[in-house]
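Try this one yourself first.
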């Protein structure tokens, strides 16, 4: 049997293979962030696909932390009955599922969110380098920053209550936790800005608050933005050394899973498996934490090569799986 179909156990949860469905925002929910029949229809093929683990698209932890109007939310207890329906889709198929929790900070993509003079907030009042809206965010106050970990923790409690196997904290693609990590968007001069241990402080505070609420038995993953530039570009902003430092810190904090992608550069690159060179170096720093490499993995050969070379423990597959829900079965037949 190839490494691709070798099981892996994380916190007592058995992943039957090393293929992870990467989170893909579906924009199928109501304007109040509730899953709909379209959401269930969207996720049924993923739940039935045979992946070892599914990470479900980003859910806002607070209405002010939305990227778009039609974004799933985990911000209030009212969502629970609806979320139970989505979670049970996965449990009934025997597919472990994590739900991704996010705060967009200053990266909003939907003009409709700017109604009534509302302005998003980020670490510093600086225009987001990836935003295509001309929005000048406000800088978060110290009190506002200290309320953020609890928002993630409350959302995580709901996610576990709904029946998911755990949560993934979104700290990449230039959203709020990525904004703190990046010197491009974080110009703070307090204990949240400056050297990497300060820029990463909020990520650890969120992790610790979530752990406190969900306990030791529940899986916590972090999707970490490894750098602000792709591996084939000149470094600028957050560097891979920053990500290595964060991964090293997490190795002594009991993190269960590290899902690796880009920060300000987003998730897209060129060719195949564009983040693999970064994944190798971050995995070295992450100690025994299992690592997911995602981004441009489209074939069984590429996936297996990454696993065989020890660049990652799991492969995240987004668009290839979305366009072909039979992908896992096809890869299995090719063994
Ligand atoms: C339409 C779309 C929506 C996405 N939504 C999310 C998301 O909610 N959370 C996240 O972390 N990444 C999101 N991503 C990034 C994917 O998880 C993945 O990292 C990216 O698509 C690269 O992998 P791929 O080449 O296998 O698709 C999204 C990507 C696309 C194309």
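Now uncover the answer:
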């Amino acid at each position: 049997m190839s490494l691709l179909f070798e099981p892996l156990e994380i916190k007592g949860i058995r992943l039957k293979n090393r293929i992870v469905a990467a989170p893909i925002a579906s924009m199928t929910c109501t304007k109040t962030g509730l899953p709909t029949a379209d959401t269930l229809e969207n996720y049924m093929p993923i739940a039935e696909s045979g992946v070892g683990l599914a990470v479900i698209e980003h859910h806002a932890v607070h209405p002010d932390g939305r990227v778009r109007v039609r974004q799933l939310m985990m911000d209030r207890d009212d969502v629970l009955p609806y979320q139970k329906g989505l979670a049970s889709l996965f449990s009934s198929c025997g597919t472990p599922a994590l739900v991704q929790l996010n705060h967009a900070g200053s990266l909003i993509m939907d003009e409709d969110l700017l109604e009534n003079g509302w302005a998003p907030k980020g670490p510093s009042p600086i225009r987001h380098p990836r935003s295509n809206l001309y929005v000048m965010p406000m800088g978060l106050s110290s009190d506002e920053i200290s309320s953020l970990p609890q928002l993630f923790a409350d959302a995580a409690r709901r996610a576990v209550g709904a029946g998911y196997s755990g949560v993934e904290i979104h700290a990449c693609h230039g959203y709020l936790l990525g904004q703190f990590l990046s010197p491009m968007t974080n110009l703070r001069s307090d204990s949240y800005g400056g050297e990497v241990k300060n820029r990463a402080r909020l990520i650890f505070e969120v992790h610790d608050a979530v752990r406190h609420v969900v306990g030791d038995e529940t899986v916590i993953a972090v999707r970490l933005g490894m750098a602000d530039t792709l591996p084939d570009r000149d470094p600028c902003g957050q560097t891979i050394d920053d990500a290595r430092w964060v991964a090293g810190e997490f190795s002594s904090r009991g993190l269960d899973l590290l899902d690796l992608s880009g920060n300000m550069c987003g998730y897209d690159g060129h060719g195949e498996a564009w983040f693999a060179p970064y994944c190798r170096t971050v995995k070295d720093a992450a100690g025994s934490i299992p690592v997911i490499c995602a981004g441009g993995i489209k074939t069984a050969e590429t996936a297996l090569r990454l696993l065989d070379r020890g660049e990652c423990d799991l492969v995240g597959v987004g668009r290839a799986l979305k366009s072909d829900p039979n992908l896992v079965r096809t890869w299995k037949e090719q063994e």
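Discussion: The chain has a mean pLDDT of 97. Residues 22-25, 57-58, 100, 170, 173, 223, 261, 267, 294-297, 317-320 surround flavin mononucleotide (CB under 6 Å).
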